[in-house]
Design brief:
239 residues; seven-stranded mixed sheet; methyltransferase; Rossmann fold; 7 strands; alpha/beta
């Protein structure tokens, strides 16, 4: 899980949290890998028409799972990796070096707003990041920041936790989600923190509201192409 990217939080505190988790992050969530693999499988189909020399922006990519997947399948693509946690980015860089694709990557330690220039990318990924921006205008601005770094017609594949928290469906999905996480070697203390975070620190909104914020950020109406429990994924084209 990646915590808030909003300007209303202590960013140093969040960086410190993920710096602590970086070396064990992939192992901790290894048993939920089938969700990630399914997302990546469908991501391939959404990005299938990108050019052989595509440039792809990966925002808040943690240890770089989506970067590694895309780089190994597409040897001509180049990547910009944006991640505020130095330790997470170090793990991402190490993965790229071990995979033999580090030379095709630009690693940026920081936030999207501090990324130099406005290089024209053909596509972008942003998985489980915007949900931690609780202020709607800031969340729209976050998506606009991605749009500004895409070519016209460029694609964004994004995912977030999403549900109508006031609906009976949320109770069903949340209960199943907690049971699934409990089977993923997450401690009772971590589970309690997750419940609290979902209630206080995560912008879990109905899928239609998230789609409207993506559109307001400069994209054509998003199309949902993925759902696994509470995780929803959209593909959007820059307007």
């Amino acid at each position: 899980m990646k915590l808030r990217w909003g300007a209303d939080v202590d960013q140093d505190q969040i960086k410190a949290l993920f710096d602590q988790q970086a070396t064990s992050y992939d192992k901790q969530w290894a048993r939920t890998a089938p969700i990630r693999h399914c997302l990546h499988l469908l991501l391939d189909s959404q990005f299938a028409a990108l050019p052989a020399d595509a440039r792809v922006l990966c925002v808040g990519l943690g240890t770089g799972a989506e970067l590694a997947h895309l780089a190994l399948k597409n040897p001509g693509w180049r990547f910009t990796a944006v991640e505020p946690s130095a330790a997470m980015l170090d793990q991402c860089r190490r993965r790229a070096e071990e995979g033999g694709f580090a030379a095709r990557c630009e690693f940026h330690e920081g936030y999207l707003a501090s990324l130099p220039g406005r290089a024209a990318h053909d596509a972008a990924t942003c998985f489980l990041v915007s949900q931690f921006i609780l202020d709607r205008p800031a969340r729209v601005a976050f998506f606009r920041g991605i749009a500004d770094r895409l070519k016209r017609g460029g694609l964004l594949a994004s995912s977030d936790l999403a549900s109508d928290v006031r609906s009976p469906a949320y109770d069903v999905l949340m209960a199943a989600w907690v049971r699934m996480m409990a089977a993923a070697d997450v401690s009772p203390e971590a589970m309690a923190r997750m419940r609290h975070a979902y209630a206080h620190d995560v912008g879990v909104l109905p899928p239609t509201e998230i789609a409207s914020m993506i559109a307001a950020g400069g994209f054509e109406p998003p199309v949902q192409f993925f759902q696994a429990g509470l995780i929803h994924g959209w593909v959007s084209q820059r307007g």
